[in-house]
Structure formats: structure tokens, C-alpha cells
Specification:
Two copies of one chain form a homodimer. With 445 residues, the first copy, chain A, is α/β, with parallel strands linked by helices. Chain A contains twelve helices and 13 strands. Chains A, B: This is Putative N-carbamoyl-L-amino acid hydrolase.
Chain lengths: 445, 445
């Protein structure tokens, strides 16, 4: 049983008009908010934020809550070897894999109540709408809690959707350690969430994957729009730049006889910023940031002999990331030459640009239009949907968050914006269920 | 018994012609080099450098050697409460305090064979010349090994000349700890070098202090001159700059909606460099360096929210240091305003400009002329002479070092340059002894 093939071209899309069967179904804003508050009982912090690291006792408690809550709306559950939980509500055609509505319940150590949690809560709200209206969908639906999306306790991020999507092996992921040396596998066993279902698309498929997530950026907040349509995920490349100069005494070395690695690094930081703000890539959404710097020997009277930089380049198109990389590399080489420095420029991680499935995105687009929204965004950050898209049609809905702030206790989305996100998810998901119904019956002819 | 007053004006200087009694005395280059090699037996490293931290077993060994070596040339010894060793060779008038020829035998952990060691070795060479020629000087002479000049094990630098000169108390200095929590006092006792002589000018005065030291900068090497005349020490101020921006996701935050503390810091580094290379202070020898940087949260995909910088400003004149400070502060405030950053600019240490005693400097000038050198340098670095100058007439001789490199195993001064340094010290010291003889006899009249 395989997922339907990803549709190729938006131009060739079928009608995605919502069937009469699903007309009149809407989410309940107050209920959605109540579910969100319930999902934040365990691990909340006095400053209004959350601290719920993967597999701690609060994570166990919220997982128990998630299972008992979704049982109320007719779900049975699968827990896989990575602790990913699939709360499955049957449909009319249970030989199909379920359509997934997923995100994550773990948080950063100083995180907020919306990143990840809102996506799971919107999935539960969809279940509640179906349950309250006594609707049986065509395909089954699964609300999914992906384990360790943040990677805050067990790096890297998006670990367990990554296992499901084939990026990481189970052995690698279960062996990831926290700072105390505990492995994720041991901790999953400790809290009773190492399941027996194989953690893979092949053994435990979904038909598709929708995800609601806060934007974690300011575009919607500036535009005063509750939701946005996510077209895909930016191309991302990470680099480590090592700059070697010559240590020398700050007091005795004339200014014109220095090979100052930190002065060179400062020029590189400015050039990086100039390239993405003043050249052709700027209007195309190119971004480049140096956020990590380390220098040695950390002595106020010894000119820095060695500086390392972490460089993050992103753009909607892979070609623009390549262009920014090339411009940075050339600029850095010129700076190094002028200052008598040596430099290495090492690309240690790539994530190519990802375009979500056109049919899925169209479903989101039509559903978003019904809540008055049409802004289309390329996600700047990674999400579980990056890895589900490796296997199944995937799309995302972004929800406005105040000032674009995330990974911080001040992270906040208004109740009406959260409800708009749930409404867009409901509309998009039901359109896709309709689409599957039609595609399946056509296939039968 | 107090030191002679510091003379006010070079114009009023007495003749410093070397008396016939001292004519024909010269150092021996090979002997000076042999002494240097002997002084580097303990703590030498395979890369040609030195690792002799204060009060380690190698430091005890070289102290034992220093005492036994200087005994050969007629010295008796005083060891004070800070382990400073005074190897005193009597003169004709032993009611006068000795003229000091001092420097230090401790090194950086990855240091060289010349920084400090050469100064003590040149003092020993002077003793050898006097001894070999059976000369009894007018005043007694003391070769001094000051403890913990580097401050590498027990910060701060120049600690024990600082106690002698009244900058630090004995209790403070003896209580300084290394990284393992051992105090300098405990370690001095352990190696048998906590003496009973009070560590102070008042209780154990010198009449004056000469010091030979490698330049630790490139001026003499560029000019191809073996020695230089040190006029004094630059004005130095150290600052801590804290920059606060706003942490945000590198992938989701548009370039024009950032308060990037590291981008602001990079602009400050460039402005600092511009101020001392392109404004009026440049030809007057102003220097400013940011050599220390730290950023948080050290995550490649989170814009730096906080950056701290260490700023070192120097110039021969205090007024230029003030001017550079003012220009940096104004530039930093403008950068902070433009980027939405907040900044604090904290001056945590000052060392005002120091002009060495004109009579002493004239002695060095005349002696340097006899080895063909006339370059005058304001020292960019601190030395034990900074603190001796608080109490007694002080002057220094700089010796050329290859490429200006210091605090590194590659630190190197040629044998003939080291000998020229010793010759300049001998000539300057003997001129001052003559001067004291004449001044004392005049005073008696």
C-alpha cells in the first residue's frame, strides 16, 4: 500500500471544491484554546513559557494526556520505536494509510506554548470537529506527535520524523545522547514510549502530512494576517570558516604590521550582510547570517590569532544559495589576502530547497482564502514536514506569532489566530480527503 | 635612605661622560649567550621555546642557579616576601642602596627564551665584567629577579615588582590563585622562596632600576638596529563593551528586521581600526585593538543576542588615549542606535603614560650611541620597570627580536643583538654610577 503519487503541476490540479458532505464544518476557537492550555499543563514555567525536553517526566505526562484525549474522539494508537505516536481515527476506507496531521509536543528549554504544540492541538481540534459532527472521513486520519523535533535534549532537530522519512537509522537515533550521557532509546523505555511499530514510512505509512506551525518570523504579524500558505522550505547551507592570523602584542605591534584575524572576521561579517542586502539576491529573499564567533587566545592584549565563524546561508532557490556562497567565498578570500590571513571555508551541512506538493498546497490555499488569507511564505526554518515530504505529499499552514518571536517564553499567538490556523487545517485536510475519494473512485473506473 | 630625586629636565642634565675608571670595560658576546642558554635549561620545550610558570619546579631550579651563579661574582642575596631575589655586589659606598639591574625569569606557558630572561642575563653579564676586571663600583649593584612578571600562572602581570613599588599589598599578592586554587604564597613556601625581607621599596630600596628587555615589536627589526632607547611606557586603557541585540531565527527573520549584536560588533571593530589608522592620532602612535570577543547563544541558526568585546587603547600621550576613547564611544553609540542595540562601555583599567627618568634615559642614550643606535621607542607593553619607576629613577634598553614575535616559542634575538643589549646596559649603568659618585661628592660639598 503506497501513497498516491505527488502531483506534478499546479496547472493540472483537479477541482478541490469542498464536497457538500463537509460543508458547514468549522472549528471552535474557545475549544481549541482550551486544548492548547491543557497541552501546556506539564512543563509550563512561571514566565509563561515552556520547558518540556524530550522524554522528561513532563513529556511522558503530556504523551499520556495526548493518548487519553484523542481516544475520546474515536482514535486507536500506534507508538513506533522512536516514540512517535499516531492517534488514528478510522475512515470509510481503512485499507488506505491515514492522512497525517502532525507536529510535536517537545519544546526548547526556554521555549513557548505554541511552537509544535499548536500543530498537535489543531490536529486534535480537527478530530473534535469530526467527532462532534459524527463525520466519518473517506481515508483514516492520524494526528501525529513526532518525538524530539527540537533536538534540544538529543540533537539533531527533527530526529524522529527524520527516522520515519529515512534520513536517520533507528540505531543512530536511539543512540543519541543528552549532556548527561543518557540515550534517547533508554529514555523512551524509561517513560514507556518505546513502541513496537517500526519507525518508517514503509512499515507504517501515511497518505499525506499536513502541519500547522507558528511562523517564527514577522511576515504575518507585519501584514496583520492570522495564517499563511507555506509553499516549501528554503534552501539552507551551513559553513564553518576558520581564519588564521598572527598573534602579536596589542601594545607593541604597529597597526600596519598586523595580521589581525578578528579584524578580518569583522570585515567578513559586514561583507556577508552587504551581499544579501545590496546585491541581486536581496529581493529574492536571500539571507546570510554569521551568528557564531569564537576567537583565541582571549587575551585583551594579544591580537587574535585565530577566529572561527559559523555562516548560515538561505534562500528560496538553491541557485541563490550557491550564488551567495560564491560571493561570500570570494569576498572572504580577498579580505584574507589583504590582511595576511589564511582561511578555510567548509560547507558542513546542506538542506536543498523543498517545494511542497502542489495539490496539498492548493488545498491549503483554498482553505486559507476562506479565512481571508492569501500570503504565501517559504519557510525559513526546518520542521517535521521537511522529512515527511521525503515520502508523502506534504504541506503546511503558518500561524501569526507576535513580533515573530519564538524559542522564548514571550512566544505568543492570539486565540483567534490559533483558531484560524485550525480552520485552515480543517479545510485543507477535508479538501484533500475529498480529493483522495475522487482520485480513488476514478482509479477504480 | 632615599633615592636621589628624579631629575626634571634633560636640558639641565650633568655630563654623563664615562669616567676613565670604567673606560675599556666591555661585555663578552659568547659569555652572554652561554649564560642565556644556562638560564634556559629548566623549562625548555622541544619546539625551542620555554614553559616556566612562576613557582613551578623549573622556576625553583633556575632560582637556585641564579643564586649560585651570582655568588661567583661576589654577590650576597636578599629574598623578599614575594620571592623577589636581589643579588647584591657591594660597592665603595654601601650606605647607598644598590643600583638595580632587573627583569624576570618566569615565562608564558608557550613562551620564548628572551622575554625577561635576557634582562636578568644581561645583569649577570655586567656582574661578570666587573668581576673579571676586578672593579668595585661606587654604589652597590643588585641584579634582580622579579617574581611572576608574566602573571601567566598568578594574574595580574608584574605582580611582585608591583608589591615592591606599592601598587599591590603583600596579602593580596600572596593570595593570588592559579587555576587549581594554589596560592602564590603557598607555592613560594613550597619551593623555598618566600623570604623574610619585606617586599617594599621603603624597607629594601634600590637607588635606580635599569632593565634590558626584548622589544616585543618590530621597530628595531625593521630598522635593523640591535638596541633601542626606551623613553617611557604608553598610556593604556582597557574597556569592556557589552552589546545587547535581539535573538531571532536566522531563517525566518528578514534582514531588515534584525537587531544583530554581532553585526553591530563587527562594525565597532572596523570603526576602532579606522579611528587609529585614518584620523589625527595615527601619526602620533595611537593604537586600538579589539582582541577579545564572545557571543551568545552560540547557535548557528539564532542571531547573536549578546556580544562582549575587550577594547585596548594605547598612545604615547594620555590625551590621545582620551581622544580615541571618545571617538570609539561616539561611533559605537551611533552603530548601536542604527541597529537597535543597547550598549555599555566600561573602562575597567588605566595605566597613565609614563616617562622614564631623563638622567637614566640619557645614560641609555649615550651607551646606545656607542653601539651605533639612536632609535627611541615608547614601550607599548608593561614591564617590571613600570612599577620600579613609581619609586626610583628607571630606564630601559630594548633589544631587537625577529619579526617582533614574542610570547611564542619562535621568539628569537640574535647573539650579537643580545650582546649589544648587555653592552648598552653596562654603559648606561656605569654612567649612572659615575653620576651618583659625582652627585654624592657635590652634595657633600
Amino acid at each position: 500500500m503506497a501513497a498516491l503519487p505527488i502531483t506534478a503541476e499546479p496547472a493540472a490540479l483537479p477541482s478541490l471544491q469542498l464536497s457538500s458532505k463537509y460543508a458547514g464544518l468549522h472549528v471552535d476557537a474557545a475549544r481549541t484554546n482550551a486544548t492548547l492550555q491543557a497541552a501546556c499543563v506539564w512543563g509550563s514555567t512561571p514566565d509563561g513559557g515552556m520547558n518540556r525536553l524530550t522524554c522528561n517526566d513532563d513529556d511522558k505526562s503530556v504523551r499520556d494526556w495526548f493518548i487519553s484525549e484523542t481516544k475520546k474522539y474515536g482514535c486507536h494508537h500506534k507508538v513506533d520505536e522512536m516514540g512517535n505516536i499516531f492517534a488514528i481515527r478510522p475512515g470509510q476506507n481503512n485499507s488506505l494509510p491515514p492522512i497525517g496531521l502532525g507536529s510535536h509536543l517537545d519544546t526548547q528549554p526556554t521555549g513557548g506554548k505554541y511552537d509544535g504544540i499548536l500543530g498537535v492541538v489543531c490536529g486534535i481540534e480537527v478530530l473534535q470537529v469530526l467527532h462532534a459532527n459524527n463525520v466519518t472521513t473517506f481515508a483514516p486520519v492520524a494526528v501525529v506527535n513526532w518525538t524530539n523535533e527540537e533536538g534540544a535534549r538529543f540533537p539533531p532537530a527533527m530526529l524522529c520524523s527524520g527516522v520515519w522519512g529515512g534520513e536517520f537509522t533507528v540505531a543512530y537515533a536511539q543512540g543519541r545522547q543528552d549532556l548527561e550521557g543518557n540515550t534517547l532509546g533508554e529514555e523512551l523505555k524509561r517513560i514507556g514510549y518505546m513502541g513496537t511499530t517500526p519507525a518508517s514510512y514503509d512499515a507504517n505509512p501515511l497518505l499525506a502530512h499536513f502541519e500547522v506551525h507558528i511562523e517564527q518570523g514577522p511576515i504575518l504579524d507585519v501584514a496583520r494576517k492570522p495564517v499563511g500558505i507555506v509553499r516549501g522550505v528554503q534552501s539552507i547551507r551551513w559553513y564553518n570558516v576558520e581564519i588564521q592570523g598572527r598573534e602579536a602584542h596589542t601594545g607593541t605591534t604597529p597597526m600596519d604590521r598586523r595580521s589581525d584575524a578578528l579584524l578580518g572576521a569583522a570585515k567578513m561579517i559586514l561583507e556577508t550582510n552587504r551581499i544579501v542586502t545590496e546585491t541581486e539576491v536581496a529581493p529574492r529573499g536571500g539571507r546570510a547570517t554569521i551568528a557564531v564567533i569564537n576567537s583565541s587566545p582571549q587575551s585583551i592584549n594579544t591580537i587574535a590569532g585565530k577566529v572561527s565563524l559559523g555562516l548560515d546561508i538561505r534562500a528560496p532557490a538553491d541557485s541563490d544559495v550557491e550564488l551567495i556562497e560564491q560571493q561570500c567565498r570570494e569576498a572572504f578570500e580577498i579580505i584574507s589576502y589583504k590582511h595576511g590571513l589564511t582561511m578555510t571555508f567548509d560547507n558542513f551541512w546542506n538542506s536543498p530547497a523543498l517545494a511542497f506538493d502542489p495539490t496539498m498546497v492548493s488545498c491549503v490555499r483554498q482553505a486559507a482564502a476562506e479565512v481571508g488569507c492569501s500570503i504565501e511564505i517559504t519557510s525559513g526554518a526546518g520542521h517535521d514536514s521537511v522529512y515527511t515530504s521525503r515520502k508523502v505529499p506534504t504541506a503546511m499552514v503558518f500561524v501569526r506569532c507576535r513580533d515573530g518571536v519564538s524559542h522564548h517564553p514571550a512566544e505568543f499567538s492570539r486565540e483567534e489566530d490559533c483558531a484560524a490556523g485550525a480552520e485552515a487545517l480543517l479545510g485543507a485536510y477535508l479538501r484533500y480527503d475529498d480529493y483522495i475519494r475522487r482520485a480513488t473512485s476514478t482509479a477504480k473506473i
